[in-house]
Amino acid sequence: EDKVVQSPLSLVVHEGDTVTLNCSYEVTNFRSLLWYKQEKKAPTFLFMLTSSGIEKKSGRLSSILDKKELFSILNITATQTGDSAVYLCAVNPNTGNQFYFGTGTSLTVIP
Amino acid sequence: DAGVIQSPRHEVTEMGQEVTLRCKPISGHNSLFWYRQTMMRGLELLIYFNNNVPIDDSGMPEDRFSAKMPNASFSTLKIQPSEPRDSAVYFCASSIRDRGTGELFFGEGSRLTVL
Questions:
Q1: Which residues, 6 or more positions from B98, have their beta carbon under 8 angstroms from its beta carbon?
Q2: How confident is the model at residue B101 (pLDDT cuts 50, 70, 90)?
Q3: pLDDT band at A72 (very low <50, low <70, confident <90, very high)
Q4: Do the Cβ atoms of B42 and A43 come within 8 Å?
Q5: Does B58 touch chain A (CB under 8 A)?
Q6: I want to staple A103 with a disulfide (CB 3.0 to 4.6 A). Which of A44, A55, B19, B42 is the partner?
């Protein structure tokens, strides 16, 4: 059965800290892995990763994929209170168009 | 584009009542997804459509749930009869299928509370 597991489940840090969020997966015929940020409403897209070892970067956020070890990490440097959210990882297998989501990591950044 | 539009935003109903949630995907997107989100189980895929055709409904909890997509710009998710355990946020999302690794665009969600 296809599966996406995120860790930690929740995290509390102080402003300025660096955090690393983890996503491991087991899917048949991997196509892509996506990261989303969810505040109070709908998830919003952050990154899409398809190739191992190529870092995607957007400001203080970056992400990388390891297709051999079947995991991805999302890094946030110099965290701000606005980074407080649930971060979701989703995997798209090549066998269909569905996206399997992990349960998310809840990040709280304290001033 | 207005994005994925869902209605109602909030619904409070009593057990046994019929609930209909509505979704308008982004124009030009040919895949539509219904997800349910709860604290315990996270985001669960209920059903998805490609070109208005249901492809995978294995996530639909039971026969009380049904979904339709009569045309490319409208879909409904119906629960009849509703039960308290159906309380959740229901998200609709759309994407462009076969465009490599197209991302999902989510609506704002419909928060359902069944008393």
A1: none
A2: low
A3: very high
A4: no
A5: no
A6: B42
